[in-house]
Amino acid sequence: MGAFEIMGTMDAQHRAERGIDPGRLLTGRAAELADALIPMNRVRPVLRSRHLVKGWLDRGAMSVVYGESNVGKTFFALDLAAHVAAGLDWHGHRVPSGEKWAGPVLYIASEGGTGIRNRMEAMRRENPDLDGDKLILLPAGLDLCTSDDSQWLVETILTKLPQRPSLIVVDTLARAMGNGDENTAQDMGQFVRSIDHLRAETGAHVMVIHHSGKDASKGARGSGSLRAAADTEIELTRSDDTIMAEQRKQRDMPCDGVFAYTLKSVFLGLDDEGDRVTSAVVTPAEAVTRKNKVRLTGTDKIGMQALSDALAHHGEVRQGDMFPRSRQCVSLDRWREFCDRHSLSSGEGDSSKRTAFHKLKNRLQDKEIVRIVDGFVWKVEPDDKRSHRSQTVPENAGNVGHAAVPTVPALYKSGNEGTLTQPGKEVVPDLGENPAPSTDTTLPQTGARIPLPDPDTFDPEMWR
């Protein structure tokens, strides 16, 4: 034991002999932290339900709902908020009601304009049970990053609302950042501290509506400190008319929730020029299977947009059994030309552009999004999962012996032919005019091309 440890031990014994409690000497913040210390043997589990929406949101927590522009984020958040405010189960998920009702909901619409009012009216008309005074709208911009708006908002809530809210929705983060930069950890950290202040002073769950980044696979836009602070993350994506809300993070519950919905149009009336005014409401739908869906990165999206433009301007239907029937193809040179026009590469030199295109081409082939043959490329469609190059074995007219089996071209991958012999050498047995049933079980000679069956008829998954 060192000299300082010995002195510490002696000092502790001296204080104990005279009945001096070191904890009593602490004041202020140090005293608060000392009172908060809990030894492990005194920690007890929390079994009382804390859900705001069972399986989705906890009381007093923080969530982020993000997705691309116009995907339907506000419709989703408004629908969920209205159910919480009314104490009604949200599409099969329990919401506190009756004596356990969590409290009113404050919806801060910083960028909704008149649209948010029409959406609330459409929801009231479509589902009168959601009508009431427990969902409170605040159509105003806030600065939760570079001003004291969080404190002013707390004072407003505690003064004007009949009771503390159970849920506060901030729609959107971009409109609540003031002069802050959402891409910097410092400004995003200040925004998160403002959210924490709202939660601590009101006890409410705070939901932040945000946009996805350029690379959707990396989640919400901006500094990663937002995701680190969030207890729940929900991503919205669209597939045709169906919007999928999928949990991407849950701090204290299983992360497997999925809610699919469509937007149903609701007629509200006629404007002053006699034109129809409509809005929409959330309607549950069947979830879209994503078994074969591939998530694209930002550069992959750029490359596919460039391919679409190249096909629109220079697409042609190629002849031959290696190309799809009635499908537009375009040369690799044309595709690269449009990739350059779309600024696929951040570099200006030809070498960097060539490298970026080469990586893109290989990556999209590996993901089975495009297919390339003889210098031409096309988009893979669902019916391409069965190889269009597989040929049918013709039947023998008399069903006697074997029919002549044509050579089946090998499947292509990255433009390379898989073959068991040298190009141009094929072995087709001469069976004569009236072939007898074959009893020959010998293996083919080395170098012979073996007629291959359609592999998809045996194990379709091996090619996906």
TrEMBL record:
Ranges where the AAA+ ATPase domain occurs: 59-240
Listed Polar residues bias regions: 436-445
CDD domains: RepA_RSF1010_like
SUPFAM superfamilies: P-loop containing nucleoside triphosphate hydrolases (SSF52540)
Matches recorded under InterPro entries: AAA+_ATPase (IPR003593), P-loop_NTPase (IPR027417), RepA (IPR038724)
Region (Disordered): 383-402, 412-464
One Pfam family named in its UniProt record: AAA_25
Name of protein: AAA domain-containing protein
Species this protein is from: Paracoccus chinensis
